[in-house]
Amino acid sequence: MHAPPDPDIQTKRRPPFGEFVALVAFMMGLTAFAVDNVLPAFPALGRTFAVSDPNRLQLLVYVYMIGFGATHLVYGPASDIFGRRPAFLAGLAVFLLGCVAAMFAPDFETLLAARCLQGCGAAAGRVVAVAIVRDRFVGREMARVMSLTMMVFITVPIFAPAIGGLLLLVGDWHAIFASMLVLGVLLGIWFVRRMPETLRAENRQSFSVGGIAAAFGQTATCRPALGYATAFGLMFGSIMSYVGSAQQIFAEDVYGLGPYFPVAFGLIAITMGFASLLNSRLVRRYGMHRISHIGMLCFVGLSVLQCGFAFLFAGRPPLLLFGGILALSQFVTSLTMPNFNALAMEPLGRIAGTASSLIGFYTTFLGAMCGAFVGQHYDGTVIPLALGYASLSLTVVAVVLVTERGRLFRPTHVEPLR
Fold this sequence. Notes:
Elements: H1 17-36, H2 42-48, H3 54-57, H4 59-70, H5 72-82, H6 84-103, H7 108-136, H8 139-170, H9 174-194, H10 209-220, H11 223-253, H12 261-286, H13 288-312, H14 319-345, H15 352-375, H16 383-403
């Protein structure tokens, strides 16, 4: 069901449902684009900045995610105090500054700092987008909107590496960061013109360090929020471990696809878009618990199967076998993660901005650290990735079982925070 009308925004024209979903997805999707668009440029960046260790180039992904995670703690309270629009636009300005800094980076260390700055700005899109959705929707309808948003958001990685590859054909790696700059400007124009303030007047918070700390405490001690945020972060860690090592696995060491790497990456990523669309239809009928728990168990089975084949083929399973199981794994994560996110946010409507920031900070750091740990153990085979998927998926099941006190598939009544 829809949240009650907000008198503060009745006088402003809301975008229609389809445009609302597309705009919120763009806010979140810019983050994914900024991560994946740069992957094809790893070899060129390695040559430009004399980076001899290929694993070190993965830091371009992980420092971005560290900056992205750290500033979640800023944008959430800011959006609850000053409103969704000012918080997002401030973050977008930081992101654009990071794009310019990356384009003119004189050395690899400066490029890493610019990537971190990009992540610091991009966090506003993720935090404010979730808060805007929670402002307008609740329950299964919120899960449906998040699934539709994720469907659009997830299609970005399908095309981002291919776009990066095309840009490298007509220019050098500077063009990749220029494309991020252009998209950021376009997003800012669209947001300013079409997205009204969604924070209800009675939910606006006054600035108070004690109040922010209390909201963080409420979020951290809410059992469903903490449990499902942890499960989300662990599943996100598996995706980050894949993103960090995908270029080395597909383009270079294991399968040697070279310029065809974006094709393999896109074919695997497109299954996530289909899953998000399917989830948006199924969740209204079967509920968030049932869909996410079934997806979680399927993820475990596929991860263990992937691990078995990795060892059976000495770390180099056939491309179709490896890619097929990996695509199915990504499919079920997209049936699971949007619902985990909705379940974590559901009891926290009154402090949606601050809650979104703390949950985003926690899940991003957890995912980035897990992904970096797995990625930095890359050894020229798929075995580290397969072991990472299997261990993370089993831990997700344990966390959800503790959160639900051993009961799966059925919703537990949760009182919203007051």
